[in-house]
Design goal:
GO terms for molecular function: oxidoreductase activity, acting on paired donors, with incorporation or reduction of molecular oxygen. The longest helix has 19 residues. It is built from 13 helices and ten strands. By secondary structure, the chain is an alpha/beta fold. An eight-stranded parallel β-barrel has the order 1-2-3-4-7-8-9-10, surrounded by six helices. A two-stranded antiparallel sheet has the order 5-6. Helix 1 runs parallel beside helix 13, helix 2 packs parallel to helix 3 and helix 3 crosses helix 5. 44% of the residues lie in helices and 15% in strands.
């Protein structure tokens, strides 16, 4: 299993994220993923710079690590033809280190363009069309498309990278696996669901595919402080994606999680200095068939300490 680091735009500004990217590469992480948000989940997180500008800078502050969006919604804030152009540019800047992670999005980020928020089945239809458009543009040449949700008129990517951009798609169940496994290169999910992994590989009808997940942790020498930080900034995580996709803003997430207790968060997220707890939860993803796992260190002011801990203790423990 490859271990990655999350550049979480909701909890750090653009310059800090570029610095953390370089630090994570130095610490020995295998890859880095970046969230693509217009808004943080909660006011306490306090940030949300434009991910694609930051990614451009990160391609120049790193040399080895793979980079990935985790994830971009290519249907409302961005037209899929524009996402294809951005992805091709980042791939060229990074010399082939970029994977385009896509998902059906959240109301939190997509409502800002004033188009409302469609139901889940429509969002998946839109995402499927977007993947077809992006793949068609990656093929090169002029591309036209007319679907139920999108049109593309004689578009062409003039700066195609030497290496085609792989596409990973976030899924949550059988319906999305059936739709996206045949047209994506890799799977993204947030829970260690072995059945989901097996179904993806069976539907894809080829060698076992890359399967990528994410795990939040709240490392810190003081466990009580780490639990409090996780509760303050990450209590939204417990709602599950079917809920998280629907709420319209930080106030909604604050209201929906007002009765979540610190001990509830600590039961789901490794908190404090105990490396064994993190190793145990990482092992659950490995046992479920995931090939890649990106860690999120909760707290924008905790990254440098976490990176030292990762280099000295965590990554050697995981790899042993």
């Amino acid at each position: 299993m490859r271990i990655g680091y999350t550049l979480m735009t909701e909890q750090a500004g653009p310059k800090d994220l570029v610095g953390y990217a370089a630090g994570a590469e130095k610490a020995g992480f295998d890859f880095e993923v970046m969230s693509d948000h217009y808004s943080p989940w909660l006011d306490e997180q306090g940030h949300s710079p434009y991910a694609w500008s930051v990614l451009g800078a990160v391609t120049q502050s790193t040399e080895r690590v793979e980079l990935m969006t985790f994830v971009t919604c290519p249907t409302m804030r961005y037209h899929p033809a524009v996402v294809a152009q951005k992805a091709a540019t980042v791939q060229a800047l990074s010399d082939g280190r970029f994977t385009l992670g896509l998902g059906a999005g959240e109301n939190l980020n997509e409502h800002v363009v004033g188009r409302g928020w469609p139901p889940a089945n429509v969002r998946h239809e839109m995402l499927a069309e977007a993947v077809q458009i992006i793949g068609g543009l990656f093929d090169g040449g002029y591309f036209n498309y007319k679907g139920d949700h999108f049109r593309v008129d004689s578009a062409k990517l003039w700066d195609l990278p030497e290496h085609r951009v792989p596409i990973a798609v976030a899924v949550s169940g059988s319906q999305s696996v059936t739709r996206f496994a045949p047209i994506a290169d890799a799977m993204i999910a947030v829970e260690p669901d072995e059945a989901l992994s097996r179904e993806w590989d069976a539907t894809k009808l080829g060698p076992p595919a890359r399967k990528i997940a994410q795990l939040p942790v709240s490392w810190g020498e003081d466990r009580d402080a780490a639990v409090q930080r996780a509760h303050e900034q990450f209590r939204w995580f417990g709602g599950g994606w079917k809920v998280n996709a629907e709420l319209p803003g930080p106030a909604g997430f604050a209201g929906a999680t007002q009765f979540v207790k610190p001990e509830d968060v600590a039961a789901a997220i490794p908190c404090g200095p105990d490396v064994d707890q993190i190793v145990k939860q990482v092992g659950e993803f490995e046992a479920a068939g995931f090939t890649d796992l990106a860690l999120i260190q909760i707290g924008g002011d905790q990254q440098e300490g976490f990176l030292r801990f990762a280099e000295d203790t965590l990554l050697p423990a995981l790899r042993s």
